[in-house]
Amino acid sequence: MGQRAPEKPMLDHIVEIPGDLRRDLGLRRITTTIVDVPTVRQHKLSQTSIKAQSYVIVEAQLENGVIGIGEAAMLGGPRWSEESVESIKANIDAYLAPALVGADASQFEQAGARLDAAAKRNNAAKAALQSALMDAVGKTLHVPAYAFLGGAMRKTFPVLWTLASGDPAQEVEEAEAKLAARLHKTFKVKIGAQAPQADMARLAILAKALGARATLIVDANQAWDETTALRCMHEMADLGIALVEQPLPAWNIEGMARLRQRCETPLLADESVFTTHDMLAVARLGAADAVSLKLVKHASLSGLQKVAAVAEAAGVALYGGCLLESSIGAAAHLQAFAGLRDLQWGCEHFGPQILKQDLVVTPLRFEDFHVHLPEGPGLGVELDRSQIARFARK
Ligand code: MUC
Ligand code: MG
Q1: In terms of DSSP bridges, do strands 370-372 and 365-367 run parallel, antiparallel, or are they unpaired?
Q2: CA distance 312 to 136
Q3: Fold of 17-143
Q4: pLDDT tens sequence across 82-110
Q5: 45, 79, 292: which to mutate for ligand 1, most atoms within 8 A of CB?
Q6: Which of 159, 190, 236, 382 is the most exposed place for a label (fewest CB within 10 A)?
């Protein structure tokens, strides 16, 4: 029997990425476009109100010519957070894109480190860039973005609708239409723009009209002080409100912890949690029962999953948040939500439905009270360039 050839060292069995593919994955250029897309009705939050939703559309072109897309949504200027579409475009063009061009687009964590070296925070801008990288690399390798994030536990997501006209009669009518169409049966009511008692009266009308056919949650977007919140939390518990989002200012996590001790309705942290450090602080204080996960806060799809991991470690439930993204940003979120072990509160990616016109060739599918993860490489959606041209800010 001849002498057996020595086993090849394991390393030889790892498939090397061929040189031409390594070249293809080089990031050639990044372009940004601001678009303003009308909404089907006015959308009022405690600190802003819109009749059109603005986005920065990011396009990342690789050396192989493949273009990946990403989207940064912002609600009504720098009032939901410190970013605006104007600041997002300016900082991508001047600082963030130059930090990435020429790099290997598939090295997502390295891209995040480069972006963090180029700018503090600017998380919506960074998330749009990383979404575009994942889209471009996914389209090059013919894999969905969730493949870069641990795979998919789910491909359909319960999805709620937000009632935010401030007129309870209109909101009842809108909710009935969504129920009848089997699109949504959980409704998030935006409160805080009106006086607390007006909001409580509005919620009473909605609760009476919809009854057990729908679940109602609310989002005060930081509008109340602790005394007001405590009074309203008790009134809302009597109305059967299932979840109260960010009743206090983002900094007041100790107040959120005290509310949580004194009220039975679960609290959802939104603006209080941008980073993993914020999540750890909220968890340590017991300041929330759940956390809203959003790319505009967590700076990347992998960053969103890191915040989720801290929450999971503390037993804080997960809620798939949004900032009224079009199907571009919504698809990016669903790619990240897909891999989460649990998503106890479903998601709120109703954004494509509130726009008069979506920005992709095939909008996300909403059916049977769920939104469906688009099949296909990268984010799973294709830019509709005619709509980008139509709504591009001149
Ligand atoms: C937020 O604060 O949750 C989500 C839905 C909506 O109408 O506003 C966003 C932002
Ligand atoms: Mg919120």
Answers
A1: antiparallel
A2: 30
A3: Enolase-like; domain 1 (3.30.390)
A4: 999 999 999 999 999 999 999 999 999 99
A5: 45
A6: 382
